[in-house]
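Here is a protein:
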Amino acid sequence: ICRGNKHDHIGIPSDMRTSIGICAGPENTTGLSPIGNNADERDVPRSMRLHALTPTGPFCPFRSSASVEMEPKMNQLNSMAPDFTSDLNKVQMEMQMGQMPDKDLLIKVSTGMKDAVESWETLCARLRLSEDFQTREYGKLTQAHLATYNTSIEKIASMMNWQADCMKAMADGSQPPMPPADMDLEQLMNQDKSSAPPNLNAMQAAEAITAAPFSPSSFETDTVREEYMKLVEDHAALIKFGGKYGTFDRLGKVAFLDQVDQIQERWDGFYFRFKLMGALNDDFKIQCDRFLKSMNMEEDDYRTMLKQSHQLMREEAERER
């Protein structure tokens, strides 16, 4: 969840995007809600929901230089998923059928899991320690997302390393290691799929959001065009300014997060007016809904997670007193 799905625009006609110099990232989308960040998302009436993703949080198309530099590391980790999950599924299927998996395959999966965990932990550490706001936001989103499943980066890494060691022991014919002290095996085995974090297969199968949220005809009036361009320019400037987030003092960080909240509310309001006019693309709304469902989330869940990630950043700033 730490980045948006494949979607490189936010509904801006191409002539407008060229004129204001938008540089969208290669894998981003658009999404949030019309109610502001102080409301309780669980109490939002269905009529007030967008059923769409606005260009905020992990779906922001404006990329900081730090997040662009982080892109190869993210892509490298993502590229491990297809082969890794295929081999792991084969091992699990053979074990469920009461068959002993091939020893070489067990060692391959064990090594792959160890490498993936190390890469993931390194990436999460870089996100957490970055000076850049957008990069830190990715890290906090991951933390907030896992917290909804009562787990953490550390717990998942510990569990995966233990599973890798078990496979290595099986291949060697030796005694498997004891599970980590904080792992509840019974709870893990009885965990309902709907309450578990999305697995690699689900995330790989997530449908790309390719539809534009608005049609070009939506920008025919000068008022709409000017409001949109101003919002785009302000948002892009804020992301660029956030490259120095780590150097801000406590009050500076809190003030910056306030600005982020205001930008989100402006996007919410803009999108919601289009919803009221029936001008939000139905295909876009459907694709947004499918993408969230692939992550075991509804719109309310996503908005809550984004709010919680920023709250974590506020709490972190407050500890700098």
